[in-house]
Amino acid sequence: MRAAIVVLPLAVLPWVAPAFWVTLANYIGLYSMIALGLVLLTGVAGQTSFGQAAFVGIGAYVTAYLTTRHAFSPWLTLAIGLAVTGLVALFLGFITLRMRGHYLPLATIAWGISLYYVFGNLEALGGHTGLSGIPALSFAGIALKDERRYYYLIWIVTLLALWATHNLLDSRSGRAVRALKGGLDMVEAFGVDAARLKIVIFVYAALLAAISGWLYAHLQRFVNPTPFGINQGIEYLFMAVVGGAGSVWGAVVGATVITLLKEWLQDLLPALLGRQGNFELVVFGILMVLILQFARDGVWQWIARVLPRPRPQQVVPANALASRPRRVADGPLLEVQRVRKQFGGLVAVDDLSFTVDRGEIVGLIGPNGAGKSTTFALISGALPLTAGRVLLHGESIGSRPPYEIARRGLGRTFQHVKLIGTMSVLDNVAIGAYLRGRSGVVRAALKLDRAEEAQVRSEAARAITRVGLAAHLHAAAGSLALGQQRIVEIARALASDPTLLLLDEPAAGLRYLEKQALATLLRSLKAEGMTILLVEHDMEFVMGVTDRLVVMHFGEKLAEGNPGEIQRNAAVREAYLGGVA
């Protein structure tokens, strides 16, 4: 319905609007493609880039050079331009996306400026004068010289890009991209190679920019470096933010608002001020401050409120996803051998050893500051070991990246809840099933992953129902109470089909009846053969569900035994109570 509201006016615009407005609509379509890449890269994945104009330039200059100097077919230069852009983006992304904080946007500014001067200083590319005589595109024998004809090509490509990006975000890979803002430790805990995924999205955004550049070159029939400088890169990012950096339609809205406003201000401000100049940049700066202050989700959020709300996508019954092969072997499932973690002069975990056998529930307890959460982080790969070994299924996993450990069958929850509050409970839990799917970015964008996607959503719904939250399937995860959010995390971990489940304070924030339901769930998981290691401060809860307890104190193992033995242990009572008078 929303798409129809946009598409129908676009289809009739060239027939009713003057040529000037058709020209503006052409540029809005070109800018929308670039802003769309930034919506995905910056608004969704959280990777700020000021250098997208340089990728537009690569797409434009490749076709300009090859068609004017070597008489290549323009359609062939599109493929070559995409290949060149992909290689450049892969190289730059590999270097740039390793940076964090303010270093990332600074790096994108640096290579954006560098590529701009490459375009202007290569004689083969015409220097700052540029290249002219670029041939017009033709399709099915029809030359697209007229802007009204070219309009349809631009907007067909733009709408296809919007469709593909919408499909991508509603997929296995798309959920992982949306989860990047929740922290790398969360997505990697479910098997996502976050560094690789960020590069893939970076390349995807660059390819959209290159397509726009290719279309721009054949629309203008002339290119020079001016449209591909850092100022234009900043303007593209501005379009994404103003429109709504979290929505694909925000790219179109932002491109429309900025293009029309710029055109209007360029005429109005000089007349008001009585002098020429780029005064619209001042207005844009003020507008950016106001948008970030009062409408951080952009203009699209206001438009979306008056449009018909999309219905939640219903979960359809589907075949179960393949389960992880259960290894049958002698010996413990998990072995922690003389593990040590040192932060400078502070020893957080010191020579800790314990095992977890298959099919048992083991509790890791101790006073605050005992080193329990650090131990969890060492087992899951969130922290590297200083010394010692951690073995899962007899295989060393110590100091491996979390996504590699997750692939070996470890699922977990977090001490501080890590959910994507704006995503539905269903989508949050579906992130847990990431490793159980195989469809990549290309299949998702072309909507060829629907059968697998139905299986993933069905699996996530089953996990949610199992933990008693079926009534909240389509609710935003951030709208739930803290205790319910912890249960959602357990459902997400179960969706990964783990062989070892790490639960970090699962009962925190739960009411009495909710704790009883959680205890029942853990016992049923154990009966099915699940192995569980949990950290918990609620002693009544942990004594009622565990087979064995490992007590830590000041980073060392103080005691180990069944709940009854631990309750009678004088050293444990002294550690918790400070001794008995």
Please summarize the sheet with the most strands.
6 strands, mixed
Give me the count of strands: 14
Shape: elongated
Which stretches are poorly predicted, pLDDT < 50 over at least 5 residues? Answer: none
Question: How do the strands line up in the largest sheet?
Answer: 10-11-12-7-13-14
Strand content: 5-15%
> Helical stretch count?
23
Computed over alpha carbons, the radius of gyration is: 28 Å
Level of helix content? 55-70%
What number is the mean pLDDT? 88
Class computed from helices, strands and strand pairing: alpha/beta
Q: End-to-end distance, in Å?
A: 73 Å
Structure keywords:
581 residues; alpha/beta; six-stranded mixed beta sheet; four-stranded antiparallel beta sheet; elongated
Would you write up a description of this structure?
With 581 residues, this protein is of the alpha/beta class. The chain contains 23 helices and 14 strands. It has a 6-stranded mixed beta sheet, with helices on both faces. Strands 6-5-8-9 form a 4-stranded antiparallel beta sheet, with helices on one face. Strands 1-4 form a two-stranded antiparallel ribbon. The longest helix is centred in the middle third of the chain and has 27 residues, at 194-220. It is elongated, with a radius of gyration of 28 Å.
